[in-house]
Design goal:
Length: 294
């Protein structure tokens, strides 16, 4: 998986929007991002998700995974709120609000599209049908559309109650380290550090771990829990596939913004990926420890 400079850069040079020197400088920076980010172990070799995809996880493995993921999902709201508060521009603040509001249950609404029919309004919080496109501006809020509630529904099938999920007290040290790094780095008041972290997180999310998780969960569902809802994971996989196409466009825009600091951006991305790795390493160590005690 490598980042590629888009054809837009060459087009902008041809029509005079960019100088050849600026284009070369951006190309060199993309190469640096490839060497600094895309070779990181958590992007190239996520041992836990690769194991999970095999479908050999026990019920206890799955329960532990869902609890830790619920802690990450719930505490991510703090990091996203910090990103809203510390945004460097109004546009950046609005983009961060889109993510936060959607996490909390505001359904994306695509301009010009029809709202869900009245007869289907009880399903507007169903992740199988809520929109992947559009904006929260003009969208409807539904409690059941909150991403954390999708995990609560999943937990119920595994005999996990609301009280078992999402709180700091349920997180392992590795999970809490990751969540705190998100708040500190992804939500950093220095926009260069925060954007580097955000860029790294987007590339991690697009690296395929969602598909690994879905593969493992589908096997577990087929063999053990046919009523297990997986839409939290399938929805996020679909939306990350969309985001992946916009990552380089966002980097291109950011790179040519006044005040962009390459080293701070790279630093934010590096330490954020280390935080991400801590989360998955914690899960992997836990499942190995459990295997030795069974």
């Amino acid at each position: 998986m490598q980042l590629q400079v888009s054809d837009q850069i060459e087009s902008k040079v041809s029509n005079g929007q960019l100088s050849p020197d600026d284009a070369s400088r951006f190309t060199r920076f993309v190469a640096t991002c490839n060497s600094e980010f895309m070779t990181h172990p958590i992007i190239k070799d996520n041992k836990y998700s690769a194991w999970f995809a095999q479908g050999t996880a026990s019920r206890e493995n799955i329960k532990h995974f869902v609890v830790q993921f619920s802690v990450f999902s719930n505490l991510f709201l703090i990091a996203q709120l910090m990103k809203v508060i510390n945004a460097g521009t109004l546009e950046g603040m609005r983009a961060s609000k889109e993510i936060l509001a959607n996490e909390l249950g505001v359904i994306f609404h695509k301009a010009g599209s029809e709202m869900v029919e009245i007869s289907d309004k009880d399903r507007e919080g169903d992740p199988e049908i809520v929109s992947l496109e559009g904006s929260v501006d003009g969208g409807r809020f539904r409690f059941r559309a909150a991403h954390f509630e999708w995990l609560v529904k999943m937990g119920e099938v595994l005999d996990l109650s609301f009280a078992d999920l999402g709180k700091r007290r349920h997180g392992t040290p590795a999970t809490l380290f990751f969540c705190d790094q998100l708040t500190t780095i992804y939500g950093n008041e220095d926009p260069n550090i925060a954007e580097g972290a955000s860029f790294a997180v987007e590339n991690w999310a697009a690296a395929g771990f969602w598909k690994d998780l879905i593969a493992g969960l589908e096997i577990f569902k087929q063999n053990h829990e046919p009523e297990l809802p997986l839409a939290f994971f399938t929805w996020h996989d679909k939306i990350e596939d969309q985001h992946a196409g916009h990552v380089m466009d966002e980097l291109e825009e950011l790179f040519f913004t006044d005040g962009f600091d390459e080293e701070k951006f790279l630093h934010g991305g590096r330490i954020m990926l280390d935080g991400v790795q801590a989360f998955w390493t914690g899960l992997n160590e836990q499942r190995i420890a459990n295997a030795h005690t069974d």
